[in-house]
Specification:
Elements: H1 2-14, H2 18-25, H3 30-57, H4 63-79, E1 87-88, H5 94-125, H6 129-132, H7 137-160, H8 171-180, H9 187-206, H10 212-230, H11 239-242, E2 244-247, E3 250-253, H12 280-312, H13 318-331, E4 341-342, H14 344-352, H15 359-379, H16 384-399, H17 401-410, H18 413-428, H19 431-453, E5 455-459, E6 474-480, H20 488-493, E7 504-511, H21 517-532, E8 536-540, H22 544-552, E9 562-565, H23 568-587
Parallel strand pairs: 6-7, 7-8, 8-9
Antiparallel strand pairs: 1-4, 2-3, 5-6
Helix pairs in contact: 3-4, 3-14, 3-15, 3-16, 4-13, 4-15, 5-12, 5-13, 7-8, 7-16, 7-17, 7-18, 7-19, 9-10, 9-16, 12-13, 12-14, 17-18, 18-19
Length: 610
Amino acid sequence: MRRRLKRAVKLAALRPGRVLRESLTSGYSGRDLRSDLQAGAVVGIVALPLSMALAIASGVPPQHGLYTAIVAGAVAALLGGSPVQVSGPTAAFVVVLAPIAARFGLGGLMVATLLAGVLLVGMGMARLGRLIEFVPYPVTAGFTAGIAVVIGVLQLKDFLGLTVTAMPEHFVERLEALARALPTVDWRDLAAGGATMAILVTWPKVTKRVPAPLVALTLVTAATWIAEAFAPGFAVETIARRFSYAGPAGPLPGIPQGPPLPGWPWSFPGPEGGVLPLSWDLIRTLMGPAFAIAVLGAIESLLSATVADGMTGGKHDSDAELIGQGMANIVAPFFGGIAATGAIARTATNVRYGARTPIAGVVHALFVLAAVLGLAPLLGHLPMASLAALLLVVAWNMGEFKHVWRVLRVAPRGDVIVLVTCLSLTVLFDMVVSVSVGVVLAALLFMERMADTSTSDLITEGHPDFVKGLPRNIVIYEVAGPLFFGAAQKAMSTLRTLRKNVKVVVLDLRAVPVMDATGLVNLESAIERLREAGIFVVLGGLQRQPRQVMERAGWEDVPGHLALCQPYEQAIDLARRRLAEVEGAADAGGAADAGDVPPAAGVPPKAATP
């Protein structure tokens, strides 16, 4: 066991960066480099406003979203398991990060991100990548649609230019606050947001060669700037008017024109604006939010990598991807970054514009860095309503409400219940509750369906498989399907209805591919009842996994009570011989039934045998 653990750790340690190494050593050409440069630049254009908008929606200043795209985007690309994955702040994280930032401040959010990174690395080292992929579609569709609804509602304040003194934390109260603030709609912000949304929706129908966010935000920002210059009294809320940063001589509007600088995550402001005191109590309190970040990051990253595989025909390394995302979330907080994960829309854009290797993801990060260094003053003129419009479009696209509606119409009733439950819990509570309840519901439904697929049948002498006729005192019990905790009780229940003259029971397990502990216990209980009734039991057709389970449990042949046979035909022959022995003993005046035959010496104690 210790040797296997050391080997797993060694292999996992070699995985980060393997995709990059393979990409560069398998004939990387100048043409590949040009494709990566083009794709990275285009994705950088898309990521620039999105990173700021998502940071703002998460409750932190916009530059921290840019720092996330720069640092986490580069680290995840270099160490991840997908060659074309693009990482950074995503819309799905908003509903998780915003409450953390509101309660613990920017410093608490960064500490939670750091802890989540450690958890992600641990998940990758433990080879949990494939397990995350097994989260059912109704669960992911439900909480994704719920996240989209929450994000959309959060953007209404800036999109409409509403005056809301304090935005409540919970969804229902938030709707009430927005409804009360409707009389304060600012037509100037609404016009800027409406124009941005119109361009974002219509521009892709004109051409997809130039990203719609670049066109929409550039045109609307220029239009509002001109309107403010020539129309007295015209003003819209912008990044520079809402946010500021500490300069040499005091606060300065907008975002800082400089690269992300190293610093301790807990040195950033806490909930009251002061320094966050790092303590074990703080870490223990933040472990819950960190777990939520890690789970959501793992699900979204692997989902994004799977989408990329479908577009490129490749195959990502799920465990390496988790380790890469974990390292990105560990490093980013030391440079002012917040939580990051694989971004589906940016990854799809990366592939669409010709990305070949992780170099494209690094180029995307460098492009954002160059924009911060050269365009920071101009970025401060972006209207908040335009960023809200951008996130409204992102929320609509990520919600995939057409697919949700289709599932509601055509899916089985159980899947519909799971989807609606996850959507409702995400909106009314949070993503952690939603995923936890959704996975449990989906698991219960899965158990029920697997139990329904597991069949059992009593085969007597009239069965066509026995041309020569099966003796009346032998019964064959055929079990088909996995013998696990969802089906074991059902599969074994028929054995309670055996007729009184049965002397030998053959359990036909040829169609049982797997068996778990519950199946073992139920099978053990059934065999024990048969033994008490004086019936000899033969297990026939054992497959590898069930036989290994029985061997680990200490099962072995018990003369007079139990026999384990791998070939099914051998089990039938043994049953016939055993019946002949019992009937011969009865004719000779010996034991009347199988239960009177004493076991051989050396039989294991009852606790170790069925």
